[in-house]
Amino acid sequence: MTLSTEPTPVLGELLDLTGRVALVTGAGQGVGAATAHMLAAQGAAVAVNDFFPERAEQVAAAIGGRALGVQADVCDPAGVAAMVDTIECELGPVDILVNNAGNAGATHSAADRTPAFWESQPSDWAPWIDINFTGVMIATRAVLAGMVHRGHGRIVTVISDAGRIGEADLIVYSGAKAGAAGFTRAIAKAAGPHGVTANCVALGGVRTPAIAHLLANEEFVKRAVRAYPVGRLGEPTDPAALITFLASDAAAWITAQTYPVNGGFSVAL
Ligand SMILES: NC(=O)c1ccc[n+]([C@@H]2O[C@H](COP(=O)([O-])OP(=O)(O)OC[C@H]3O[C@@H](n4cnc5c(N)ncnc54)[C@H](O)[C@@H]3O)[C@@H](O)[C@H]2O)c1
Question: Is the pTM of this model over 0.85?
Answer without folding.
Answer: yes
